[in-house]
Design brief:
3 copies of one chain form a homotrimer. Chain A is mostly helical and 395 residues long. The first copy, chain A, has one domain: Ammonium transporter fold (Orthogonal Bundle). Chain A has 14 helices and 2 strands; from the N terminus they run H-H-H-H-H-H-H-H-H-E-H-H-H-H-E-H. In chain A, helix 7 runs parallel beside helix 13. Chain A is globular, with a radius of gyration of 21 Å. Chain A starts with 11 loop residues before the first helix and ends with a helix. In chain A, 64% of the residues are buried. Chains B and C meet through helix 1, helix 2, helix 3, helix 8 and strand 2 of B and helix 8, helix 9, strand 1, helix 10 and helix 11 of C. Strand 2 of chain B pairs parallel with strand 1 of chain C, so a sheet runs across the interface. Chains A, B, C: Keywords: Membrane, Transmembrane, Transmembrane helix. Chains A, B, C: Its main location: membrane.
Chain lengths: 395, 395, 395
C-alpha cells in the first residue's frame, strides 16, 4: 500500500535544488579562480573510498541497498561542496579539495549509525549541520588548541562516530529481531566488496597530509594487516563453535587503519604499528559485544552499522596511543612536549564533547515534524524512496 | 529447446581469429619498435573505465549480464587494437595507446543502444566499422576543419550516441512491456557498481589530453558532483510520489562529465562548471521522458540503455557550451575567434551527420542474412550465447 | 545439525595469534627502522590484485563465497608478513614490501587448487610452508643458478600452480557431479568482477621489477588483449553449438599476462607479444579439456579452480618463450648467451621440481589428524566456518 508512505516530492527535491543554488552562488562569489591545488592520485583515492568504498560498505541491510549506495552518493557530493566552501571561508585558506573530501568521512560514518532510520530530508540536514560543526571544531583545534592540521583532520573518525551515536540516541530503537534489520549472504558479500575497497585505499587516506608519506603508508599497511588477521582470531574466539562472523571481519579489519591514523607518520618502529593494529581489532570486536549487550540497551542507542566499535573505539585507542608516543618522546626531546601532551588530550576531549553535544542537538532537530521522521515500521526499507520498475511486472 | 537457437560455431570464432590474425600481421608490418609512449596512470584509468566501468554499467538487464560484461570485454579489446592501427595508419602518427583506448568509448556507447538485440557477429562487424569511421571523422575534424585534437576526441560521446541510435533504428522494437527487457534490484545494483566506477574515473578521462590537467580535473569533478545531486532532485520531481528512479541516477550522474568534456580545461570559474553539470543532469532526465514517450515511438527507435539522454543530449549541451564560451572570449581576445566558432559548429554538425549516416548504413549491413540477425523473441537473452554449467544440474 | 561439524575454536584462533605474535617479535628484532622503500602505486596495484582481484576471482563456488573472499584476505595478509620477514632474513636484503606481496601470488594460486577442500588451519600451515619454500627457491635461483631477480620472481605462477596441484593430489576427489562443487550465474559474475580487476591490474604486476617499465606494460597489455579475444574464439570452437563458457573466459583471459611475465620487457616487437597471448589462451582452453578429461582422473588430481591451465601451462609456455627469445638473441649478441639458456632451463626445471616435491610433502603434512582434515561430504561449504546471522531468522 504505497499510499501510506509519506511523499517527499514537495520537500526533498526542492531542498536539494535550493542547496545547490546556494552553493553555486557562493562558489561564484568566493572563487574568482579555479581552485585547483591538489594531488590527483590522492583525490582519486579519497573519492574512491567515499563513493565506492563506503557506498558498498553500507549495503549490508537486505532491503536497503539502493538507499545505502544512492544516498551515500548524494550526501558525499553535497557534503564535499559544503566542505570546500567552509574550508575556504574559514581562516585555513589552505583549503584544498582533497581535505574537503576527507572531512566527509565524518558524515559518512555518522550516517552509518542511523542507517535506515532517517529519510533523505533528514540526511541532508544532518550532513550540512555536521560538516559545518566539524569544520568549526577543526578550526578551534588548529587555531585555539594549537593542534597540528594533520591531527585535527584525523579526528574525523572520532567526531563522526560520536556525532552519529548522539544523533542515533534520539531515534527509537527497532525491535531486537526485526526481520528487515538483517543482512543476507548476498548483501554481506556486497558489503565485503566495500570493505575490501576501503582496506586497499586506507593507506592513501592516512598519507594525504603527512610529509613523510612512505612511513605513514607502511605503518598503516602493517596496522591494517595485523588488525585483519586478529579479526579472524578474535571472531573465532567469541563464538561458541569457533566460527567467524562476517560483520566482525568488516569492522575489525578497518579498525587498525583508524587507530593508526593519528600517528601513522610518527611511529618509528614497525612493531608499534603492529601492536596498535592488534589492539584496535581486539577492542573493536570485544567492544561490539559489550556495547551491544550492555551499553546500547541501557542508553537506548541503536547503532545500525556498528560505527561505535568500527570507528569510535579504535580512534579513542589511536588518540591514547598518540599521547603515549608523545610522552615517550619527552625524554629524548625538549620539555615542551609535556605541553603538547596536554594540548592533544584537550583537543581529544573537546572534539568528543563537541561531537556528542552537537549530535544530540542535531538529533532533536531531525525529529521536528517538518522533516517528516519516518515511523518505526518503515525503518530499513528501500520502498519508501525508490521506484522499482520490476514491481510493476509482479516481481 | 536449445535446438531452435542459431549456432554461431562456424562464424563467430573464425571471424575473431581472422581479425586477430589480420591485427597481428598489421602490427608486424607497422610497428618495427615497441609502441610505448604513454602515461601508465592514464592508460590504467581509461582501461578501468572501459573494461570494468562500462562492463558493469551495461549489466542492468536481468537475463543479459554475462553477455553485457563478456561481450564488452571482447569488443573493447578488439576495438582498441583496431584503433591503435587506425591511429598509426592515419596521418596523426601521434597515435598513442591511451587515445586509441579513448576512441573505444564511442563503440561502447553505441553498443548500449542496441544492447541485447544484436549477436556477437554483428557486434564485431559494428565495432570494426564504427572505429574506422570514427577515426576518419576525427581525421577530417583535425586536418580539414582545423579543430584541435582534444576537441575532436571529445566528440566521442556525441558520435557514439548518434551512431548507436541510427543503428538501433534499423532493428525492430521489442514489445513495450517485454518481460526480459527489464532490470531487477540485483542487476540495478551491479549497474550502479559500474556507474560509480565510471563516476570516480571520469575526471581522468577528461584530463588525459588537456595540458592544464588540474583545471580539467577540478571542473570535471564539480560538473559531475552537481549533476549527480541534480539527478536526485529532478528524479524526485518527475515521479508522482517523489520517489527516485535508479535509472535516472545512473544516467544523469554521468551527464555532467560528458557535457563538460569539450571545455573542461578552458572554464575559468568553478560556477560555470557547476551550472553546466546542473543543466546536463536536467536535460538528461527530462530528455529521457520526452524521448521515451514522444520521439522514440514516432521514429521507431528503441534505445536499450538510454544512450541518447545519457551521452547524446549532454554532449550536445557541451558543444553548445563550448560555442558560448568561445563567443564570450571574443571581446577579450583576437577577432579570429569568430572563425573558431564557425569551425566548432561545423565540426559538431559534421560529426553528428557522419554518425547518423554511417550508423544507418551500418544498421542496414547488420541486417544482412549472412550475419544471422536474431529474432525478436530471443532479444535480451544470455542463453543464446553462453553455456551455463548449472543448467545441467537442473538450476 | 551443526554439532556434526568439527569446531576449530581451540586451534585456528590460537594459531593465528601465535603466528602474529611471532611476526611482531621478529619485526621487533629485525627492523630497527621503518621499512619504507617502495613505490606506493606499485604496492597499491599489487595489493588491489591480491585482496580484491584474487579474492573475487575465487568466489565462483555457489556455497563458498564467504570463505573464498574471507580466507583469501587472511592468507594474503599472514603470507605478506611472513614474506617480508623471509626476504629480509635471506641474503637478498633488497627485500622490499612490493616484492614480498608479489610472492604471495604463488600461495593464492596454490589455494585455488584446493579451494573448498582444506580448513583454515590447513590453509595457514600451507601458506607459511609455501612462502618459506618459495622464498628459498628464489634464493637458490638467484644465488646459485644465477638467474636474474626479476625472472626468479616471475616463477611465482609456475611454482604456485604446481605446488597447489601436488598438494591437491593428496586430497580425495569430490564426486564428478557434486551439487556443491558448481557455480551459479551470480557467483560467476562475482568471479568475473575479480577477473576483470586482475586483468586491468596485470600490467602493473609485470612492470614492478623491470627497469623498462613502459615496454613491459605495453607488451603485457597486448598479450592480455590477444589472449582475451582468443579465449572467446577457442571457447566457441570447443562447444558443440558455438556457445561460450564463462570459466574459459576467466582463465584464458589471464593466460596471456602469465605467459608474457618472464619476458615482458625483453620483447622488442609487439607481434611477438600478441602471438604469445594467442598461444597462451589456446593452450589454456585446450589444456583444460585434456587435463580434466585425461590427466586429472588418471592422476586422481582435482584442480578446484583450474590453476593448472590458468597459471601452470601458460607459465610453462612463457618459460619456453623466454628460452626461444634467448636463443634468437645468440646470433646478435655474445656467445655467453648459450650459458644463459642453460641456466634458464635449469632454473625452470629446479623450480618446477621443487614445487612438486615440497607440494607433495605439504599435502602429506596437511592430512595429519592434528589439522582435522574435513570429510568429503563437507567440501565446498561455507557453513563449517561462518556464522550466518540470517539463518537464525529462518533464512
Amino acid at each position: 500500500m504505497p499510499s501510506t508512505y509519506p511523499s517527499f516530492r514537495c520537500s526533498v527535491p526542492w531542498l536539494i535544488l535550493f542547496l545547490e543554488a546556494v552553493f553555486i552562488v557562493l562558489f561564484y562569489f568566493l572563487f574568482s579562480d579555479v581552485y585547483a591545488f591538489f594531488s590527483y592520485p590522492d583525490l582519486q583515492d579519497v573519492s574512491h573510498m567515499l563513493i565506492f568504498g563506503f557506498g558498498f560498505f553500507l549495503t549490508f541491510l537486505k532491503r536497503y541497498s539502493f538507499s545505502s549506495i544512492g544516498f551515500n552518493l548524494l550526501i558525499v557530493i553535497l557534503g564535499v561542496q559544503c566542505s570546500i566552501l567552509m574550508d575556504n571561508a574559514s581562516v585555513f585558506l589552505t583549503g584544498r579539495t582533497v581535505e574537503a573530501a576527507m572531512s566527509m568521512v565524518a558524515v559518512v560514518i555518522s550516517i552509518g549509525a542511523v542507517l535506515g532510520k532517517i529519510n533523505p530530508m533528514q540526511l541532508i540536514v544532518m550532513t550540512v549541520v555536521e560538516i559545518i560543526v566539524f569544520c568549526m571544531s577543526r578550526w578551534i583545534n588548529v587555531h585555539i588548541l594549537e593542534v597540528s592540521y594533520r591531527v585535527s583532520m584525523m579526528h574525523v573518525h572520532l567526531f563522526g562516530a560520536y556525532f552519529g551515536l548522539a544523533v542515533s540516541s534520539r531515534f527509537s530503537e527497532p525491535p531486537p529481531r526485526a526481520e528487515k534489520n538483517a543482512s543476507t549472504p548476498k548483501s554481506d558479500l556486497l558489503s565485503m566488496l566495500g570493505t575490501l575497497s576501503l582496506w586497499v585505499f586506507w593507506p592513501s587516506f592516512n598519507s594525504v597530509l603527512p610529509p613523510q608519506k612512505n612511513e605513514a603508508i607502511f605503518n598503516t599497511c602493517l596496522a591494517l594487516a595485523v588488525s585483519a588477521v586478529t579479526a579472524f582470531a578474535v571472531s573465532g574466539l567469541t563464538t561458541k563453535d569457533g566460527k567467524f562472523r562476517m560483520t566482525h571481519i568488516h569492522s575489525a579489519a578497518l579498525a587498525g587503519g583508524v587507530a593508526i591514523g593519528y600517528a601513522a607518520d610518527r611511529i618509528k618502529y614497525p612493531w608499534i604499528a603492529m601492536i596498535l593494529g592488534l589492539l584496535a581489532s581486539t577492542i573493536s570486536i570485544l567492544g561490539s559485544f559489550c556495547l551491544q549487550s550492555c551499553l546500547n540497551p541501557r542508553l537506548k542507542i541503536h547503532d545500525a552499522s556498528g560505527v561505535h566499535f568500527t570507528f569510535g573505539l579504535p580512534s579513542v585507542l589511536g588518540a591514547l596511543a598518540q599521547v603515549v608516543l608523545s610522552v615517550m618522546e619527552i625524554q629524548t626531546k625538549s620539555p615542551s612536549i609535556g605541553y603538547e601532551v596536554v594540548l592533544i588530550i584537550g583537543a581529544f576531549c573537546f572534539t568528543i564533547s563537541a561531537a556528542l553535544v552537537t549530535g544530540l542537538i542535531t538529533g532533536l532537530i531531525l525529529n521536528f515534524k517538518l522533516l517528516k521522521p519516518i515511523p518505526l515500521s518503515k525503518y530499513f526499507e528501500d520502498q519508501m524512496y525508490w521506484k522499482f520498475p520490476h514491481l510493476a511486472a509482479g516481481f
